[in-house]
């Protein structure tokens, strides 16, 4: 019964001081709204940047053969190391962290790529099917090199958009220099696509059927490549089993794990190719995870930035609330004196002041939070396109519920604390003195 | 009813000690109507604050209705104030955001009485001071005299042993002052003890007993003169 009376007393006090309540409520409401919007936008920025960079930041290891620089068990220095198909198979079999694995073999000598009487030099890579995951190759039409191609040593190729354009869509005169071409979308057929698919290109005298057209957003040079099945290329070059480069990705490995893999690789290759495991020039291992981690550093940097924004706006809100609480308590010194003269205990007065503040900040803070979260949701679902644009640095703005509730709690707590100390002081003033204050 | 023996009280103002009450002996019986007079600085307000348990005293003995009022915790002091004393102030000290009825009901809130009963009781006392029709008005919508009546109704609501009034007419014109004094007289006729602090002669002379304070001591008290006066001389 008395509890209910107490809450009604609070409600009444808030209602009767409309201006004071409204100002306090608005400052908390605004603080929470800003906090949620800033945090949410920050998260949107972080997610956008992550989306943009995550494809280039594949955690991969690349291995090249080198030349020994140290003698090993009677073997001289200066020996050229060579990788063969066996190394690829061995890696595939023994290394548990391998996710996507490919080798590269380069056609020897200089050669032209031709079709009919058109001829030019394009770059050619002979690879395994997984290669497209390492270079982030996006197929526009058809397919990439596949396992059956390798098995049957088919004479097929996948070509980049610039290769396509050179042979099948020579630019009309005067149309060349109107800015960069639009980014091709998968599934959209151009005249050049239709003209190219299924046709043949001649590489080093051998015709290859075009089975796929790809686009690589990473760099423009990547679109000048022609990919061949590695087995076909090796067969054509006299049945060699050499490979020039091996690279693979691993799933979610830590930096330490990737370091272990690197060390293991070096020992493994040293044993198989007979070189000193300490010889850093016999084979070269490039570990992309470090770069990947650098990107992670960028993401963390943005995250930290978001937090700084959040904490600063939280502090601004806290100061605002604390200020209002201080003024409010000072204003109420006389009321406190009167209530004491009528039999109010110190505890009940402190409770009254604090709960008024807490009720007000909680309600208005919750409203600010709700509006902020609602706005972010609207922006995410109604304003931003459902599939993010390729160059968009902003996607899925939003906040973690725990963080927002925590921030609201801090705001309420700081309001209560800012009211608590002056409230304690105010109720300790003798009522006779308190009532004389203006 | 009220028993004071050698009450002393001093304030510390910087390094100096200002003695305000220098040994007050006073007995006020049930149903008395007493005025305390004195120049400003004579200690009358301080005496009233001590009597009202609004302020502490340094030494001496104070008994209120047989209960020693000494070294009370804040909670006890609050309870005794609520149970024993009804306050009337010069500046009314009504809460500006509460209407007349709610102001009168406030002491009852602190007794833990429910809203309905509280408001009924408050209405009774507002009726008693002739303001039943004004119960929903805020203090700012009432005249000074009306506000003081509301304050008196509030002082009565908790059925106190004594009403302590600090310059209750100080903010009122003479006509209204007379009305308020009339109200106090009729309350006293019902048997309620009333103690008024004032510096106005005509107010003081309407009380049945007039105590004069000067420099923190009782200068004149008819009760002392009749009972113990000869002994003192």
Structural commentary:
The complex is a heterodimer of chains A (438) and B (233). By secondary structure, chain A is of the alpha+beta class. Chain A has 3 domains: 4-54 and 293-436, no CATH class; 67-98 and 250-281, no CATH class; 100-245, no CATH class. Chain A has 14 helices and 14 strands. The radius of gyration of chain A is 35 Å and the shape is elongated. The relative contact order of chain A is 0.19. Chain B has 9 helices and 10 strands. In chain B, strand 7, helix 6 (174-189) and strand 8 (193-198) form a beta-alpha-beta unit. Chain B has one domain (2-232): Rossmann fold, CATH 3.40.50. In chain B, 45% of the residues are buried. At the A-B interface, helix 1, helix 11, helix 12 and helix 14 of A face helix 2 and helix 3 of B.
Unreliable residue runs of chain B = 228-233
Count structural domains of chain B: 1
Q: Could you tell me the number of beta strands of chain A?
A: 14
Number of helices of chain B: 9
Residue-averaged pLDDT of chain A, rounded? Answer: 82
Look at the helices and sheets of chain A and give the structural class: alpha+beta
Major beta sheet, strand line-up of chain B = 6-7-8-3-9-10
Rg over CA atoms of chain B: 18 Å
Q: How many β-strand stretches of chain B? A: 10
Overall tally of structural domains of chain A: 3
Question: Sheet bearing the most strands of chain A, described?
Answer: 12 strands, mixed
Which chains make the largest contact? A-B, 27 and 31 residues
CATH topology of chain B: Rossmann fold
Number of helices of chain A: 14
Give the % helix of chain A: 40-55%
Query: If classified by CATH, what would the architecture of chain B be?
Result: 3-Layer(aba) Sandwich
Helix content of chain B: 25-40%
The unreliable regions of chain A are 174-179
């Amino acid at each position: 019964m008395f509890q209910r009376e107490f809450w009604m007393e609070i409600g009444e006090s808030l209602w009767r001081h409309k201006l004071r309540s409204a100002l306090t409520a608005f400052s908390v409401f605004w603080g929470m709204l800003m906090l949620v919007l800033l945090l949410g936008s920050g998260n949107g920025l972080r997610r956008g940047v992550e989306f943009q960079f995550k494809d280039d930041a594949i955690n991969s290891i690349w291995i090249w053969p080198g030349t020994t620089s140290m003698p090993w068990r009677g073997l001289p220095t200066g020996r050229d190391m060579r990788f063969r198909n066996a190394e690829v198979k061995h890696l595939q079999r023994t290394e548990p962290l391998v996710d996507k694995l490919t080798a590269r073999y380069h056609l020897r000598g200089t050669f032209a790529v031709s079709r009919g009487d058109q001829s030019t030099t394009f770059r050619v890579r002979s690879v395994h099917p997984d290669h497209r995951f390492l270079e982030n190759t996006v197929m526009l039409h058809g397919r990439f090199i596949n396992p059956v191609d390798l098995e049957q040593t088919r004479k097929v190729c996948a070509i980049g958009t610039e290769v396509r354009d050179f042979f099948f869509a020579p630019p009309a005169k005067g149309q060349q220099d109107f800015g960069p071409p639009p980014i091709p979308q998968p599934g959209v057929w151009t005249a050049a696509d239709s003209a190219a698919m299924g046709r043949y290109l001649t590489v080093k005298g051998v015709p290859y059927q075009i089975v796929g057209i790809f686009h690589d957003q990473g760099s423009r040079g990547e679109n000048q490549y022609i990919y061949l099945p590695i087995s076909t290329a090796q067969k054509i070059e006299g049945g060699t089993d050499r490979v020039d480069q091996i690279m693979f990705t691993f799933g979610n490995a830590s930096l330490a794990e990737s370091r272990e893999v690197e060390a293991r690789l070096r020992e493994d290759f040293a044993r198989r190719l007979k070189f000193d495991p300490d010889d850093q020039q016999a084979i070269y291992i490039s570990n992309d995870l470090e770069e990947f981690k650098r990107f992670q550093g960028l993401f963390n940097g943005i995250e930290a930035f978001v937090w700084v924004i959040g904490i600063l706006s939280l502090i601004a809100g806290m100061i605002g609330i604390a200020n209002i609480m201080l003024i409010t308590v000072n204003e109420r010194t006389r009321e406190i004196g009167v209530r004491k003269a009528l039999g109010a205990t110190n505890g009940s007065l402190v409770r009254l002041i604090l709960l008024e503040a807490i009720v007000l900040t909680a309600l208005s803070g919750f409203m600010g939070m709700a509006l902020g979260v609602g706005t972010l949701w609207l922006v995410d679902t109604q304003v931003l396109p459902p599939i993010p644009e390729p160059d968009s640095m902003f996607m899925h703005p939003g906040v973690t519920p725990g963080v927002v509730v925590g921030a609201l709690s801090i705001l309420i707590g700081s309001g209560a604390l800012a009211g608590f100390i002056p409230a304690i002081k105010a109720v300790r003033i003798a009522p006779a003195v308190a009532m004389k204050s203006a | 009813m009220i028993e004071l023996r050698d009450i002393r009280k001093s304030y510390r103002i910087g390094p100096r000690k200002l003695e305000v009450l220098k040994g007050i002996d006073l007995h006020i019986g049930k149903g008395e109507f007493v005025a305390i007079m004195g120049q400003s600085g004579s200690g009358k307000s301080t005496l009233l604050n001590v009597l009202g348990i609004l302020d502490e005293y340094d030494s001496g003995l104070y008994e209120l209705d047989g209960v020693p009022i000494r070294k009370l915790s804040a909670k006890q002091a609050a309870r005794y104030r609520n149970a024993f004393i009804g306050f009337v102030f010069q500046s009314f000290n009504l809460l500006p955001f509460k209407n007349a009825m709610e102001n009168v009901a406030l002491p009852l809130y602190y007794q833990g009485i429910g809203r309905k009963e509280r408001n009924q009781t408050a209405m009774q006392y507002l009726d008693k001071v002739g303001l039943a029709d004004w119960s929903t008005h805020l203090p700012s919508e009432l005249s000074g005299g009306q506000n003081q009546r509301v304050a008196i109704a509030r002082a009565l609501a908790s059925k106190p042993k004594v009403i302590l009034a600090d310059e209750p007419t100080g903010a009122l014109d003479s006509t209204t002052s007379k009305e308020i004094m009339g109200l106090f007289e009729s309350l006293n006729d019902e048997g309620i003890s009333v103690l008024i602090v004032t510096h106005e002669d005509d107010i003081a002379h309407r009380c049945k007993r007039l105590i004069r304070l000067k420099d923190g001591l009782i200068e004149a008290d008819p009760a002392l003169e009749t009972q113990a006066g000869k002994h003192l001389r």
